[in-house]
Hints:
Blueprint: H1 9-35, H2 48-70, H3 76-116, H4 136-184, H5 186-195, E1 221-222, H6 228-241, E2 247-248, H7 257-260, E3 263-267, H8 277-292, H9 294-297, E4 299-304, E5 307-310, E6 318-319, E7 333-338
Parallel strand pairs: 1-2
Antiparallel strand pairs: 2-3, 3-7, 4-5, 4-7, 5-6
Helix pairs in contact: 1-3, 1-4, 2-3, 2-4, 3-4
Amino acid sequence: MAALDPGGRTARxxxxxxxxxxxxAIVLAVGVSAALPPVSGSAAGLPQEPKxxxxxxxxxxxxxxxxxxxxxxxxxxxxxxxKAAERAGAxxxxxxxxxxxxxxxxxxxxxxxYMTGRLDMIPMISSAEPGAAVHDAAVIEHISRNNGRRxxxxxxxxxxxxxxxxxxxxxxxxxEKEIEDLESQRTRVKKLLAKYKPEVTKAPVSGGGRPDGVSxxxxxxxxxxxxxxxxxxxxxxxxxxxxxxxxxxxxPGDPQDHGxxxxxxxxxxxxxxxxxxxxxAHGDSVAQYxxxxxxxxxxxxxxxxxxxxxxxxxxxxRQMEDRGSITQNHFDHVHVSVL
Length: 339
């Protein structure tokens, strides 16, 4: 009907609306662009940091591997720190990808709006009036609302990315601190390792589950195969603090100390349950006794209550990462490893 309008009022009105929509789109595009967080690598430095973190981690990993060879393996606290750093680095990289994808989406939307004077949802058609465009005010409100959500999501991802990188940096700092502590003890550890030479695992001659059938043994042994040094520690601890519900030692196929016959777990409870207050106090006494006699017994480290005391470090308990269960976190047993 617009062509039949002698005054061309309908056509002029349509042109005015088209211009208004274009101006609205341009204003919106400028607003979206202005609201975007800085691109990765400007303020937050997101593209550069992953490379730096990877390089730093590679250097620390090389130092840690050297220490593991020198210090007779299984530097548990260092390995825990390395795993935490790896997880933090992976999380930071994942967040960066999410951030880049979200920012690109919003940037493309703003660019498209500016160039075409419209957004994908223009014109919007009302379900109640299939043939008519929604009023400009409703369209603008809808665009603003949806774009606002996109920008808010992008801003949230920016904050998340920055936090992920801070966490990754902190975890790497923990690794470096652990390495520096171990390296500072090199002279003392060399003397310790020279005193306690590596031993070969020996199976029990007899005993039906008890260490070599020694008279006075109190606790059932699971995996009754270990080095002479580990058996000496087992007999002394069991003789002083036993009986334990179970003492678990050799685990065939274990890549760490349980597999080499140089570790035993002195259980304070069974079934994966948290020990009672009395049993925990008993475990405290066991752990402290082993630590106090570490030099005489050739102890490498003790783990108890999600903490590790490594004789190759500068001393003291170190908190460990959460492994997910009472048993994995060593709340129900005292783990003892020997050199």
